[in-house]
């Protein structure tokens, strides 16, 4: 590969990685969504996707995801579309907007945005990737450390690899420009795929809980400069390393502050099940309360808490942390965020065309 072609490909791939990082979903502090059944008919599905595109153009904080099942052969069957918002009040605005688009989205159909987390925080995880062909060989490896961030912080990346001499060629050892371009491309790929893998999860596809990936060591060797080998080497070696961690499904633990009527408090069975309830203040008629609750415990009464103005004069809920789901929770369907709605529409149309083709 001549120098001009190498630089052209380098610029193209770096721009691609930069654009892909911007496409990653903003799930910081998002913990709740609305579900609706996935439309089976093509006409209904296309109308739904058009409405979703209109919604996203109107409200950039909305994220779209799906629940799906996947056969051993890889065929995907979508079950639900999920509209992820910032909080319950945001979901109400989403539902109202979609209803004006003649899409029946019910605020009662709330769902939890689970997360994946690992307790393997004090060890380094190693992964590698090799690809041997008749023309070029690839050997890439990483050693990473995972740190937990405060709830709502999202994903962070830090390159603690201090040795910049991590790019090696079996041939053309004196290609100093290729080594410099390769170093920049490999480090950029490590940044992108660290965030992407955390966003896509490892168990059922839920995003990893707020995490920071530190690259402790990294290296990439090949015979000749190939830009796509750097992206492939970073992706697979990082994935191999992250999969070694013991990932588990977690749910949000919420901090609730509210003021409610004393009689309402005393007669409501929900409060009798709250273990850490604290009465901060009281007057003749009202209690000022504070407590923590799993989102799965309180999600079904959020509408009452927000709308029962007669007995609840103030209600505020925020994300506190994440805790492992309880054993009774049966999560089976896979989850994924749809980054690019237009691309997803094309994939659905291709899938439908393949199903229409009779087997040979």
Descriptive notes:
This protein is an alpha+beta fold and 360 residues long. The protein is built from 10 helices and 15 strands. The protein has helices at 3-23, 42-58, 88-100, 176-200, 227-242, 262-267, 269-272, 295-298, 302-307, 341-356, and strands spanning 32-37, 63-70, 76-85, 110-112, 115-118, 124-132, 137-148, 155-159, 167-169, 211-222, 247-261, 278-282, 286-294, 312-324, 334-337. β9, α4 (176-200) and β10 (211-222) form a beta-alpha-beta unit. α1 (3-23) runs parallel beside α4 (176-200), α2 (42-58) packs antiparallel against α10 and α4 (176-200) packs parallel to α5. The longest helix is centred in the middle third of the chain and has 25 residues, at 176-200. The radius of gyration is 24 Å and the shape is globular.
Weakly predicted, low-confidence segments: none
- Please report the distance between the alpha carbons of the first and last residues: 43 Å
Summed over residues and divided by their number, the pLDDT gives a mean of: 91
Reported for the largest beta sheet, the result is: 5 strands, antiparallel
Helices, by number, come to 10
The assigned structural class equals alpha+beta
